[in-house]
Design a protein that fits this description.
It contains seven helices and seven strands. The protein is α/β, with parallel strands linked by helices. It is globular and about 45 Å long. The N terminus is likely disordered.
């Protein structure tokens, strides 16, 4: 059974549809997804050799807290870090890759990235420079062109299911870094992605969501609006498609 088959089984047999938006909701019983510890979801950060992969170190805790608060997914409370070249990353339900510097995959990294995505995996990639002409953006987009073809990475429409699979958004939420002129001083009103057989396998952002969500999760209560709600959509979409 492939990872994509497991995801479909997870959706049909544990009924993610009635995900409760409250911390006290009941847990999902008997999940068939093979994550040690009987978790439905774990956060996996991808380590790659060429760049600064270990950015936004508090972001995973914030995303995990949001999933626990709003959904009934059984969430592993710990971030996991795996080298992209390590075959174990092929079993992860969700992967995150980010940085500021050069992205130049080794042959093993390139092979695993392609295999993972083509076999049903989901990678959320965030450009911490918030700069469409920056080093990370240019080099990562070049890698995607080598692997999937020059036209594979395209803009997502505002009607994409990503924006309505849990919370409703009119499009990708703006970040404070965009509004404050960080990076290329532009508000990017789109996200990009790579579709594999009608399914989004790579979600790519120049909006620097990683930095936007990089704060102590206990300080979230001081925000007028929880800015990690969009992270919930990203994960729910990844787990149900």
């Amino acid at each position: 059974m492939t990872r994509a088959d497991f995801l479909r089984l997870l959706v049909t047999s544990v009924a993610l549809a009635p995900l409760a938006r409250a911390r006290g909701a009941s847990s999902i019983p008997d999940s068939p997804f093979p994550i040690p510890g009987s978790y439905d979801f774990r956060f996996t950060r991808l380590m790659y050799e060429s760049g600064d992969w270990d950015v936004d170190q508090r972001m995973p805790s914030n995303l995990i807290d949001a999933l626990i608060q709003y959904t009934t997914l059984r969430v592993d409370p710990n971030e996991h870090v795996l080298p992209l070249a390590d075959p174990r990353m092929l079993e992860a339900p969700f992967c995150y890759l980010a940085g500021h510097k050069l992205v130049e995959f080794s042959p093993d990294e390139r092979r695993n990235f392609e295999k993972y995505v083509r076999n049903g995996g989901f990678v959320f990639v965030d450009d911490c420079n918030h700069d469409i002409d920056g080093l990370f953006a240019r080099s990562f987009e070049g890698e995607m062109a080598k692997i999937f073809g020059g036209d594979a990475l395209g803009k997502l429409s505002k009607s994409h299911p990503l924006y309505s699979c849990f919370f409703n958004f009119d499009g990708p939420p703006a970040t404070g870094f965009e509004l404050n002129g960080w990076g290329d001083d532009l508000v990017h009103d789109y996200l990009k992605g790579i579709d594999i057989d009608g399914r989004l396998g790579v979600l790519y952002s120049n909006k620097d969501y990683g930095c936007e969500w990089d704060y102590d999760w206990r300080n979230k209560r001081f925000l007028a609006e929880d800015n990690t709600k969009f992270a919930v959509n990203v994960v729910v979409y990844a787990m149900t498609n």
